Amino acid sequence: MRILIVDDDSALRQSLSLLLTEAGYQIEAEGNPVLALARAGTGTFDVILCDVRMPEMDGLTFLRRFRAEGGSALMVMMSAYGGEDAALEAMREGAYDYLTKPFRADEVTLTIQKAEERERLRREVDTLRATLGAERGRDLLVAESRAMRNLVELAGRVAAHSTTVLLTGESGTGKEVVARAIHRMSPRREEAFTAINCAAIPEQLLESELFGHIRGAFTGATSDRAGLFEASHRGTLLLDEIGDMPLGLQAKLLRVLEDGEIRRLGAREGRSVDVRVIAATARPLEQAVEQGSFRSDLFYRLNVVQLHLPPLREHPEDIPSLITHFARGAAQRLGRPVSITPRALAMLSGHAWPGNVRELRNAVERAAVLSFDGRLDAADFQLNNGRPHANGSGPANENGAGTVNGNGNGAGHLPTGYQLKPQVEQLERATIERALAASNGNRRDAARLLGVSLRTLFYKLRRYQLE
User: Fold this and answer.
1) Is residue 452's pLDDT more than 60?
2) Is residue 129 part of a domain?
3) Nearest to 278 by CA among 232, 219, 314
């Protein structure tokens, strides 16, 4: 534990240094409070013992400036003047404890021991919060496929830092969910997470939403108003559809990212903000830069770490887990059980999902809301422009062939043997059987051969009754 002693009395500095060094602490001492403040700002001290009355700078001013500059060490004030009133004032300013001179050696060591215990408990709480926050963040993300597991691992690594993140991917791939997970896994998890869609708000209103305005800045501005950057101070701000931000605002955003300062619309003075910015886009920003609709300097400033979310069609092994996740969420919101039949699960797993994860979530939500008993079968889902599906393109017969209706003149029958899904399933089953044979029945090795997770393989084995 490192302790800094700040006192203009050299004899007291020396005696305290000897006492606390013998107690096993690392001690540094400084008689000039101005120099001590500089050392406190660059050193990693756990406790600062500071005299109240000193030339050049008194102890309470030292305390205020140390806190204003972001210092977090515990402050123990020392003084022979003022008594209880001085102690209360020091506590109001943020001091941890107060020692009245002259003090006994055991008073000092006991105070430091209490401070040490408090710091130990604080670190334990911070560790527990970080662990819990990381678990809660990962709980938002369903990742069975290798691509999504890699994405979650990268999100967890970048969450620990305040660097800007650029999320890319098709609409509906879950960029806001990943942004929320990064926030929950970050040290900023206790502060606000705010999201704004840059494509949904007109330019002048968007500037006011982001940076705020003062009274009279424009017609209708009847009072001062803080923007989202100020509201997100020490938290996280998601700028969704950043590629649609007007060029004029792009320059102002770049200044905020570079300087950490915003200026309300109509104001002359700037305001410092500490905000972690995550940007998201479904547009290829490199192409927008080439076309001149997006600033290259802003692109490079946002693209410090880029996380690409693949479309759902590129990681279909995640679909069963996503369905289970969404069904569990729907059950919590509706207050009743929601389950998926194997036939519905097979149908949903074979769908292309052009709207990606958002379309899948909405399909499960809609079916759960409209279901009578919460048991969702294939007929409860509407896919492909709202037409209900079973296992084929209509009510399926035993051979897998569907039927279609004519224009009110009765039903016509399609020839059998042309249904794509049964053919694909037959090929999938045969491929799994070959992989199991090649791995001598070792399912983990078979999953590795097939390029799927072990959980996905278990699901396929149950589906094709190969267990």
Assistant:
1) yes
2) no
3) 232
Domain shared by 220 and 179, yes or no: yes
164 & 300 share domain: yes
What DSSP letter does each residue of 285-316 carry, written as one string? HHHHHHHTSS-HHHHHHHTTEEEEPPPGGG-G
Q: Is residue 360 assigned to a domain?
A: yes
- Give the global pTM: 0.58
pLDDT range class, residue 387, cuts 50, 70, 90? very low
**pLDDT tier for residue 308 given thresholds of 50, 70 and 90:** very high
Look at residues 343, 306, 337, 340 and name the one whose alpha carbon lies nearest to residue 322. 340
Q: How confident is the model at residue 194 (pLDDT cuts 50, 70, 90)?
A: very high
Number of residues in the chain: 467
Tell whether 426 and 398 lie within a shared domain. Answer: no
Measured in degrees and rounded to the nearest 5, phi and psi for residue 51 equal -70, 150
Between CA 210 and CA 225 the distance in angstroms is 11
Q: Write out the residue range of the structural domain in which residue 347 sits.
A: 314-404
The residue whose two tokens read 């770490």 is: 305
For 158, the token pair is 């970048």
* Alpha-helical segments (H) within 93-246: 105-139, 146-159, 175-185, 203-211, 228-231
Do both 251 and 395 map to the same domain?
no
Nearest to 317 by CA among 151, 429, 445, 455: 455
Closest to 428 in 3D by CA, of 313, 317, 310? 317
CATH code of 441's domain: 1.10.10
Give me the residues paired with residue 197 across strands.
240
Helix-, strand-, coil-residue percentages of the chain, each rounded to 5: 50, 15, 35
Of the pLDDT bands very low, low, confident and very high (cuts 50, 70, 90), residue 229 is: very high
